[in-house]
Amino acid sequence: MSDTQNTSFINKPDNHSKNALKSPDRSAATHQYDAAIQALQAQFGDKLSTNMTVREQHGHTMTWLANQPPDAVLSAQDKHDVAKAVEICHQHKMPVIAFGIGSSLEGQLNAPYGGLCIDMHALDAVLQVNNEDLTVTVQPGVTREQLNHYLRDTGLFFPIDPGANASIGGMVATRASGTNAVRYGTMKDVVLALEVVTASGEIIKTGTRAKKSAAGYDLTRLMVGSEGTLGIVTEITLKLSGIHECVASGLCHFPTIEDACQAVMLTIQMCLPIARIELLDALQIKACNQYAHLNLAETPTLFVEFHGTEAGVHEQAQSFSDIIEEFGGTDFVWDTDETERKRLWEARHNAYHASSALRPEAKALSTDACVPISRLAECVSATAKDIEDAGMIGPIVGHVGDGNFHVLLLVNTDDPDEVSKAENIIDRLAKRAIEMDGTCTGEHGIGQGKQKYMQQEHGSALIMMQAIKQALDPHNILNPGKIWPSLP
Amino acid sequence: MSDTQNTSFINKPDNHSKNALKSPDRSAATHQYDAAIQALQAQFGDKLSTNMTVREQHGHTMTWLANQPPDAVLSAQDKHDVAKAVEICHQHKMPVIAFGIGSSLEGQLNAPYGGLCIDMHALDAVLQVNNEDLTVTVQPGVTREQLNHYLRDTGLFFPIDPGANASIGGMVATRASGTNAVRYGTMKDVVLALEVVTASGEIIKTGTRAKKSAAGYDLTRLMVGSEGTLGIVTEITLKLSGIHECVASGLCHFPTIEDACQAVMLTIQMCLPIARIELLDALQIKACNQYAHLNLAETPTLFVEFHGTEAGVHEQAQSFSDIIEEFGGTDFVWDTDETERKRLWEARHNAYHASSALRPEAKALSTDACVPISRLAECVSATAKDIEDAGMIGPIVGHVGDGNFHVLLLVNTDDPDEVSKAENIIDRLAKRAIEMDGTCTGEHGIGQGKQKYMQQEHGSALIMMQAIKQALDPHNILNPGKIWPSLP
């Protein structure tokens, strides 16, 4: 990685620059924020709440980071509410944070500098389905389960499945992916176009419904994954997928994680169009057995799903069976019947709750990393050893076709020693992934939790990101203090 | 589309802004460029040429746009040459344009403000193949045919096929795609990471070899398609695909373009993983018949390719046969034998030369547009009518699975009336595509030729693009006058 010297190519944000990415000054600005909130109250009336319970609900985190509530919460009813609210915040230089359903995992929704939280839950309309084009346009508050429910009679589905029933807007913000990504891609691959409220409250459109374009900069992909720091999304046009005639689910066991990873690599090299391929380590299987009274062999296990025609799915299952045999895979069972499929995947679906039940009094903290698949076994094994050495409990589940995996650390967050041990495990994992030419997060995002790895991962490219932020949000009002710290 | 009012959200480039996207002032700056060229000569010696023939070769266009040669051409030998040259250009505020193989179609390589052209042909090394990860890292001068030749024994291939034997660097710059895009995506989908020389001559890296990441802004996709206006690419890491066990090629005829498009839509809705699906209109087939002494029915024709296992390919072909029957498709023939496949696709492979031969004394000018597939038949038919009404010759070929198609207008470019008619056809096509919620270019890019449509297609988002350009290239030295005009 390059360092940050010789960064004259851009207007480097620094303490001397008038518009640097500086922190909104809370202490000096209280009066200013009061004026902003008065202006918002005048504009929105009952849609605006300053109730502390409501504020705390919107500043919650899924981490050990402290709750940092916003000063007020707006329940936006349409895009014009969002645009007007941002315009007011822009006038008063007050931070503004969009809220979907609150399932982000790295403190993306905290309000370290206060400001306004715009809750998008009422923007929950599916605006337009185009069956012939396999596209849909939705408001950001629609959740992925709502969307798939809406689509149930169309023969189409929205394939991105990050586990949580996240809002589509939130999934855009964190560049979400999940179990289907190995075949269907991530949010970066399925977003065709966005409607975005900019830092000054203007509504713009990025992209069209054409499947591809070579007309100028790819603002859509710049917005996807920007965690609300470059604009607030008010409409999303997505590519959908056709539902295949036949779906089969299955699982098999391996002597070691290395063997399982080798089988996954060969599966992908052989062009098997696998729809899901998930690794659960031995501890995770043990947790699932205990939780759901299952009787699975407590060894590294792959859960797989095949999508295709009936003949195609049978052929895929046979090819997969041949592949795993080479690497000591055993007890491969699979089925196309829906009830049986659910039974086979029960352990995978219950992974989170099963893990939590290993230590019910602890908080379950999820972290993720992503590496080239050739390094996956090494990365998972070294991480498992770190967890063991620390005497902690941390089952591992991986979207292994992408080289992406999660550790669920069970931590007593009231014990500073445990928190420190957990932080150390996460720290070593993030750095290890980057050293393996991977990334400190495959799908959870940076938020507040992973800012310290941005320099190591991106080098001088980080300065380029900050130059873009400064150009598009000169007052640093859009979700400040996320992705990188605001400068003092 | 929104208009450009209320654009205060960014430092709007305008005549009052010190660092607006203004034209390098050639007349006043001659002396300054002389100094820059002297500095480049001192640095690079014989690697730098100011020979007019060499300069004109590097300012060529594939359009009716006049040749605008650079002031000098550097044959870069490595990334450090590129970085040093850009640094010198930066010091002297002289334009700098990267040159791959010269196959861009919208004047991307012209030098309207002079400056330095950096020829990348010597940066032609395949640096690293990672079979296990299906990735490769190459220098920008490698062409797609060179890369696939290099990969021939690995079981892997690079799937993006824009027709021309383009350089990978050029394909990054224009966000190229082509016949395989319906299954394998475009350059935006296969580029994992880039090494980029910034406007000040610094070398940065965007992305890693991990298949996905949620760590900060997607600079990789911002660079892809930016036509050399945000940085010069010196290394590219690509995702590869496994070569399938079986490939089948085929063709079939339809009564109308509408019927052919309906068959394509159903093919995609039915989840058929079609690898290529190309439409040739009746005139194009007639041209191919004449050129290669073929005997194809002169009606709209689909050329298809299936990739998969042997059983899978047979199943796909059978399903496709069933689908086309619904829409009057006839004479479907297909084969898996390589010689026979080539024979079947001969007409498609010869399309360009066959079209040109319809009027050998004319110049063949290629334009493209892309629309939602549900609008494709209407867009193609209206365009064909425009061509007929103008009394011109312009066969149509489409990457129809993406809603993307090309018109090859055969124009006597010495006849202003013909040029005007051709411009009018292209103008109506671009505007029609945008009105259909599509784009004025699916894969050729904007360059100089399509700048006038950026406002209609992007509205205020255009201002956001320009703010990014200004932030990353404040002196506007990177390929100025492309994508949008430089301001006076």
Automatic annotation (TrEMBL), chains A, B:
Needed cofactors: FAD
UniProt keyword list: FAD, Flavoprotein, Oxidoreductase, Transit peptide
Pfam family, one: FAD_binding_4
Biased composition (Polar residues): 1-10
Matches recorded under InterPro entries: FAD-bd_oxidored_4_C, FAD-bd_PCMH, FAD-bd_PCMH-like_sf, FAD-bd_PCMH_sub2, FAD-linked_Oxase-like_C, Oxid_FAD_bind_N, Vanillyl_alc_oxidase_C-sub2
Enzyme Commission numbers on file: 1.1.2.4
Annotated ranges, domain FAD-binding PCMH-type: 66-243
Origin: domain of life: Bacteria
Keyword Transit peptide found: yes
Disordered: annotated segments: 1-28
Family membership: Belongs to the FAD-binding oxidoreductase/transferase type 4 family.
PANTHER family (alphabetical): D-LACTATE DEHYDROGENASE (PTHR11748), D-LACTATE DEHYDROGENASE, MITOCHONDRIAL-RELATED (PTHR11748:SF111)
Protein name: D-lactate dehydrogenase (cytochrome)
UniProt source species: Psychrobacter coccoides
